[in-house]
Amino acid sequence: MALIFLIALSQMQTLYFRNNFGDLEFEAVVSMTTIPTRSAHPWVAANIKNMLLTTPNNLSFFLNIPRRSKAGEEYIIHAGILELQSARFHLNRDCIDEGPATKILPTLRSSKIKDSQTIIVLDDDIIYYPSTFSILMEAVRKQPDAVHAMCSPVILGYQGFAFKKRTLLGLISLDHPTECEYVDDDILDYHVRNVLRIPIKATSRGPWFCSFDKKQSETSTPTSEWPELQFHTDRRSLQKKCVQTLRDTYK
Asked: Across the chain, how many H-helices and E-strands are there?
């Protein structure tokens, strides 16, 4: 039912986006990426459009989609995503597949994003509360020299985090050891804390799903049609190996 609603909403509002958002001064940019099985699916287009409809007009979206994945698979983009392109929504194809870090690194490199702008990093397959965007933007306004994370003072991409672009430009030269291939949140968190030495603040403490509608996200997403990326079963062991490798690298 939720999927039908989102798709209907997507079809009804296309003309609205084309006609009502001209040249705006955007305070913040939402940075995301996706995977080949999701980029071709109407649900992701509908979810992004719903975010556009329910967030402030001084917020734009930057979706990084490479031409091909690391495995050589071509990204097919659903027509609904292409139709969203406007002043508030930029589809960035000028990037390569860097794994989950593709949701942040190409945005940091882009000259289209000013160093003074706020970047909000989110996942494309989660239904976030509209308040999440406002909470993160306000947190960065009050303390622009920190990274602000939802729910806990830890960088977890699916929960959402935000920062001024200039604050994390040092991530562009991010060293990404093979031991950290499946734990991108851990490598980002480590670099921010221990290499760049930027504080990470919790903007809204609560359960791990405090930033999004857990029930809707679990029940409406067609996960059977887009299998999740296959993670190593022993994630905790990988996290330890990743962190130890980073410690050895930055002694």
From this structure: 9, 7
Which stretches of 21-59 are DSSP H helices? 36-39, 42-54
Sheet with 118-121, edge to edge strand ranges: 89-92, 59-64, 28-33, 118-121, 161-164, 147-151, 200-205
Helix (H, G, I), strand (E, B) or coil at 216: helix
Q: What is the pTM of this model?
A: 0.86
Rounded CA gap, 118 and 127, in Å? 21
The CA angle 31-33-35, to the nearest 5 degrees, is: 170
Tokens 């985090």 correspond to: 161
CATH of the domain at 70: 3.90.550.10
- Total number of domains in the chain: 1
Asked if 138 contacts 144 with a C-beta cutoff of 8 angstroms, the reply is no
By mean pLDDT, which of 13-17, 23-27, 35-39, 220-224 is the weakest? 13-17
Q: Which domain holds residue 107?
A: 2-249
Virtual torsion, Cα 49, 51, 57, 63, nearest 10 deg: -70
